[in-house]
Amino acid sequence: GNYMLPRGVTVSICPIAIHRNESIFENAQSFDPDRFLPERSANRHAFDFIPFSAGPRNCIGQRFASYEQRVGISWLLRRYRFESDMELNDNPPLAEAVLRPKYGCLIRMYRR
């Protein structure tokens, strides 16, 4: 690039900014899990989506966390129905260590 960094400087990246970049993801602000389908992500750079960082020093727990997430969510969805009176647009995400809803997430769970 066109940037010269002094020796010893610490550089950080902001995954949230990358993940919401309209030049990388069409409608980046919208919830669209289909953007990760193989046919829609085949030509994307490997570092365009980095929820666990990337490269040789990425999160060592990435595979375990992804597996645990799929198992946990599927277990909950098979057993419960979820409802909320909150509209997604009325509860913007806050960028902290991870994204979280600004006003919390009030839901009702009903056993199936």
Automatic annotation (TrEMBL):
Pfam short name (any one): p450
Domain of life: Eukaryota
Binding, heme: C59
Molecular function terms from GO: heme binding; iron ion binding; monooxygenase activity; oxidoreductase activity, acting on paired donors, with incorporation or reduction of molecular oxygen
Cofactor entry: heme
GO cellular component terms, A-Z: endoplasmic reticulum membrane
Transmembrane segments: none
Keywords from the UniProt entry: Heme, Iron, Metal-binding, Monooxygenase, Oxidoreductase
UniProt xrefs under PANTHER family: CYTOCHROME P450 FAMILY (PTHR24291:SF130), CYTOCHROME P450 FAMILY 4 (PTHR24291)
Family of this protein: Belongs to the cytochrome P450 family.
Function: May be involved in the metabolism of insect hormones and in the breakdown of synthetic insecticides.
The protein's name in its UniProt record: Cytochrome P450
Organism, as annotated: Pristionchus fissidentatus
